[in-house]
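ok so i was messing around last nite and threw this chain in just to see what happens. nothing serious, just curious
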Amino acid sequence: MNIAVANVKGGWLFAPAWGTIFDAMTQLTVLNSMAGADLETALDQHVRWGLKWVDLKDSIFGKRGMDLTDAEAIAVAAAVGRRNLSIYAMSTLLFSDSIEAGRDHFQRLHLARVERAMELANILRPRFIRLIAAQTRRRGELVDTTEYRQGQY
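result:
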């Protein structure tokens, strides 16, 4: 069973989607680690829930998705494919860091890993690669973080 989500008259509707107008609607996906502690269990749970999409992040052979070897990524793609699932997103922690660390830090630590994310994406074939926005250590004291970021960084 697929579950469709629609905003109907100000409220959210979660409904089964069997050959209805909901087929074109948004479909649910969850992080693999929310469905099970290991990849195989998580993928099997996705199938039981009737989900078509997997959001890969962590608990993949005991690793984060970004830390997979090419051989492991091929094994993940095969396991997903055997269950007729697709990878919606490869969720990463790219750019999840303090903006105060500075541009050099981000270029050295995060931009260098973008290439690896693209290599893994060529194997896993996700629809999207999820990045996390940089944050500030000063969040609690700032009224407008956008203004702070634009002014400082």
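not much to say yet. The helical segments are 32-35, 39-49, 70-82, 103-124, 145-152.
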